[in-house]
Specification:
Blueprint lengths: L3 E7 L3 H11 L4 E8 L6 H14 L7 E2 L16 H4 L21 H11 L4 E5 L4 H9 L3 H4 L2 E5 L15 H5 L1 H8 L5 E4 L1 H4 L3 E3 H9 L3 H9 L1 H11 L3 E3 L1 H10 L4 E10 L9 E4 L17 E7 L1 H13 L2
Parallel strand pairs: 1-2, 1-4, 2-3, 4-5, 5-6, 6-11
Antiparallel strand pairs: 7-8, 9-10, 9-11
Helix pairs in contact: 1-13, 4-5, 5-8, 10-11
Length: 319
């Protein structure tokens, strides 16, 4: 069976590191590039971390394209989640700088190029704010038709957000870009915190990773401490949410989740900035509005959490 071509748009990030390592050990897919974006860290550090993680996994053959340093509206006041992932994004381990370098192309250019080179065959797994994907759409209006699928980690459908009661972090990072992407007409699946908060790595799971002979599993245990501490403080739980690995595995095996379909718009201002508003009603509204004639997307509503954890553990321990 031909492997699915994947580009991971990422802001590494502890759970990004987990997702990248799982991706590199998933025989169903071929990772053809990483593109970087701000979010858990600033973009420059995201690029450094992406290169470092590929070196740790001995996959420096995979290109890394650096993404935008500002939002789609040129905003520079970015929300950076260093209090979750550490000031270096990887658990305050301060690893030595990677030997590799990013390619000369920007992330948006790389996305457009690969979608054109392999029309209908590339899946983008977007693990951070959606600026790079929105820029790709601006650069090439045909991008939504050329790209095979976009799996978005983002949104707080049917539940409160994790930045504030209204917004989830990735969408809050660039709401204008998110609204462009959700309404672009591409084949989109959104995996929100309504499902990722059901997928938990426990202390016991972490101990199993530490005892395995896998270099990648042991590396993750080294960086996971701060992530566990944050979850204990913020959520009063002894586990960590597997946001990014869940979205990655949704691209690998869509049957792990169930979806409902409808139109998604993103609030771009005010107290609910970053809120994902989902309309899956069959009602015919009486007037034309900002919702009229918009393309639908799939939004995840359930997840087989035990299987997601099991697959992730197996692929990390057998790497």
């Amino acid at each position: 069976m031909e492997r699915k071509k994947i580009i991971i748009d990422t802001d590494p990030g502890i759970d990004d590191a987990m997702a990248i390592f799982v991706a590199l050990n998933s025989p169903e897919i071929e990772v053809i590039g990483l593109t970087t974006i701000y979010g858990n860290v600033y973009t420059t550090l995201a690029t450094r971390n992406a290169l470092h993680l590929l070196e740790v996994a001995e996959r420096s053959d995979i290109p890394v394209a650096e993404g935008s340093h500002v939002t789609i509206t040129k905003g520079t006041k970015l929300r950076i989640a260093d209090f979750v992932h550490g000031s270096d994004g990887l658990g305050n381990q301060n690893f030595p700088p990677p030997k590799g370098k990013a390619i000369d192309e920007s992330a948006a250019t790389f996305l457009v190029e690969k979608a054109s080179q392999f029309p209908g065959e590339v899946t983008v797994v977007a693990l951070g704010p959606l600026t790079n994907i929105a820029l790709a759409i601006e650069n090439d209006p045909e991008f939504p038709k050329k790209i095979g699928q976009i799996v978005i980690l983002g949104g707080a459908f049917f539940v409160n957000g994790n930045v504030n009661p209204a917004a989830e972090a990735n969408i809050f990072g660039d709401p204008d870009a998110a609204d462009i992407v959700f309404t672009c007409g591409a084949d989109i699946s959104a995996v929100g915190i309504n499902v990722t908060h059901q997928v938990v790595l426990t202390d016991a799971d972490c101990e199993k990773l530490a005892k395995s002979e896998s270099k990648l599993a042991q590396y993750l245990c080294k960086i996971l401490g701060i992530y566990f501490s944050y979850h204990r403080e913020a959520y009063a739980t002894n586990g960590v949410y597997l946001h990014d690995p869940t979205a990655l595995l949704a691209a690998v095996d869509p049957s792990l989740l169930t979806y409902t379909e409808g139109v998604v718009r993103v609030q771009t201002c005010g107290i609910t900035r970053g809120m994902t508003i989902f309309d899956n009603t069959k009602k015919r509204y009486g007037e034309n509005t900002e919702w009229s004639n918009k393309p639908t997307v799939r939004v995840a509503v359930t997840v087989d959490a035990p299987t997601v954890v099991k697959i992730m553990m197996e692929r990390l321990m057998n790497s």
